Amino acid sequence: MLLPWFAGSYALSVATLILYFAYTGQAWNVMMGFAGQLSLGHALYVGVGGYAAGALFFHYGIGPWAGLWLAILLCVALGLAIGFLAFRFGISGVYFALLTIAFAEFTRIGFDHLDWLGGPGGMFLKVAQRDSIDLLNFRGPPTMYYYAILALSIGAFVLCFFLLKSKAGYYWQAIRENEEAAQALGINTFRWKMLAVAISSAMTAVSGVFFAFYYNNLFPEQIFHISRSIEIILGPIIGGIGTLFGPILGAVVLTLLSDGITEGLAAMGWEIPGIKQVFYGLVLLAVIMFLPNGIWPPLARRLGFHK
Amino acid sequence: MNLLIVENLSKSFRGLKAVSDASFTIPDGSINALIGPNGAGKTTIFNMVAGVFPPDIGKIRFMAKEIQGLRPDQVCAAGIGRTFQIVKPFAGLSVLDNVIVGSFLRSKNAADSRRYALEILEKLQLGPKRDLPASSLTLPDRKRLEVARALATRPRLLLLDEVMAGLRPTECDQMVEMFRDLNKTDGLTILLIEHVMRAVMALAQHIGVLHHGEVIARGTPEEIVRDPAVLECYLGEETEV
Known about the structure:
The structure holds two protein chains of two kinds.
Chain A: H1 3-6, H2 9-34, H3 43-60, H4 64-88, H5 94-112, E1 123-124, H6 142-165, H7 167-177, H8 179-184, H9 189-215, E2 217-218, H10 220-223, H11 226-239, H12 246-267, H13 275-290, H14 296-303
Antiparallel strand pairs in A: 1-2
Helix pairs in contact in A: 2-6, 2-9, 2-11, 2-12, 3-4, 3-9, 4-9, 6-7, 6-9, 7-9, 11-12, 12-13
Chain B: E1 2-13, E2 16-27, E3 31-35, H1 42-50, E4 57-62, E5 65-66, H2 72-78, E6 80-82, H3 95-103, H4 110-123, H5 139-152, E7 157-161, H6 169-186, E8 189-193, H7 197-203, E9 206-211, E10 214-219, H8 221-226, H9 228-235
Parallel strand pairs in B: 3-8, 3-9, 6-7, 7-8
Antiparallel strand pairs in B: 1-2, 1-4, 4-5, 9-10
Helix pairs in contact in B: 3-4, 3-5, 4-5, 6-7
């Protein structure tokens, strides 16, 4: 909370990145961790959300408070369309995952050809004076973005906490554990899965808007890329799928370690391209081998938490 | 009054007749068994009642409403609970949470749902195990959990799919006692599909016998064991040597 008062700008940007992944991971976790629906294309919602709010600002000077709603609307519509196709026609498991990749990929290719949004050359939001806070247009110094994403992360955590304790949380977990048994208990599995997709895609749309206004540039090749989708899901997987603290813990561990190693190697004068990816792979391997449920569940037991 | 009326039910799978022209009724408050050799069509009838797939021909009436062709969740909402022959616990959830999922169907809120789930766990003697993960239960306890979850949806009719299979005789007797108690104290109507004759004879007031997809006999346990058609299908025809 008080980090900006004593941390340097580098630490602040790392903290912002951690929170960004914690928030987005939490959003993905609603779909996969709670309801058991594996999306490997969440970059789709980040991208569409970012472009929607970004385009409104870029072309018409409309700030993200309006763009946010457009982003959420578009992403929920997209999510529900994918969900409808999959759940209505019995596409599940890896085939569902493939469908989510397909949607993200053809959206990426589509955006490459959308000149109105900059095409492959990207869209750049005007960077205003960085030290004055303009809340209306969400422009300001890094501290403002840090607090915004901190608030979002806390909000997402609280939302997920209550979702898990609600009827929706119980129903999602039942569907995740055994869909047939869930249906036999009177659960309309189609409807509840659609709700999970809607909430998850709406939350991810918000992280897209944040991304657009924080980084001020959007390239289809980057934002929609499958490596972005993977980046989003690594945190919750490492931290613990389906847990509330997993996405946060995973984001902290991955971001600190990968940034640490890039910085460390740079300090030693080794600039090795792709070292971050190799490192991701190694951590993932270690977690899968030694902590198949992620870091949080065994840690929680050691700390004496029930779950 | 008849709670469930099955009329002229037929179902084929790729030309193979699994059930043909089956009819039976289940009076409110009774315990009924559907028996028959393997492949007789018991599970097919069960699945049609539970909404897993619709019949080709025929009607299923529950509480005077036609329910054939409804989805499983709609059948459950109408008041029919079911268990699975191969138990399907929500393995990652606790025993209590498994039952809470079921009791949400007719509860106002989470607290209400939890209260009712605890009540059911006590009734089925699973109370002390409520905080264990469902995956850690033994088979008899898993079968109990299966029943507890179905009961939590507050059904008028409970469908039991070979719930005694794999149990030791003493465990089987405990289950029989439990169902008798549920029937007596809560007026729960039960339809069981069962291979274990020990349980069927001890529990059922009415028995239907299926053979090659057809109902070949209906009656009380005493009538059924003396029925020549039943003896024939279970023991084979008498032949001269």
